[in-house]
Amino acid sequence: MSPPAHAWLGHALALYEYWIVLYLFVLSTIYFVLMMVGFFDLMRHRLTRRDEEENRVLEGSALVSPVSILAPAFNEAATIRESVRALLMLSYPEFEVIVINDGSKDKTLKLLIEEFHLYRSARFYEGALATRPIRAIYESMDPIPLIVIDKENGGKADSLNAGINVAHYPLVCAVDSDSLLEPDALLRVARPFIEEPKRVLAVGGIIRVANGCTAAGGRVLEVDLPKSWIARFQVVEYLRSFLGGRVGFSAFNSLLVISGAFGIFSKSAVLAVGGYRTSTVGEDMELIVRLHHWARQMRKDYRIVFQPDPVCWTEVPESLKILKRQRNRWQRGTLETMWLHRSMIGRPSYGILGLFAFPYFVLFEAFGPLVELIGYVLTVLGFCFGLFNWEVVLVFFLATMLYGMVLSVGSVILEEMSTSRYPRLRSMLLLVWAGVLENLGFRQLLTLWRAQAFWDLLRGKKSWGVMERVGFGRPPAGGAPSKV
Amino acid sequence: MIQYLYSPHYRRIAQALVCVTVALYAGSVLAVAPRLDWIDDDMVRYASAFIAVQVAVQIVLVVGLVVSKHVRSIGEERRAKRLRQVEELISRPAAEPEVLEAAGRWPEEFLTVADSALQALAGSSRQRVSELLEASAPYRQLLGDAVDSSPRRAIRAISMLGRVTSEEARRAVRKALDHPAEAVRRAARKAIVAGGDEEARRGVLTHVSALPFWERIILFHVAPPSPTLDDFLAEALTSDRDERVLVALELVLTRQRLVAVPVPAGLAESRNPEVRIKFFRALPFLRLGLDATGERGHEEVLKAGLEDADWRVRALAARACGVLRAEGFAGRLLEMCGKFEDPAEAGHAARALAALGGTGWRRLQSVAAAGEGAGQRILTEVIERRMLGPEGGR
Question: How many structural domains are present in chain A?
Answer without folding.
Answer: 1
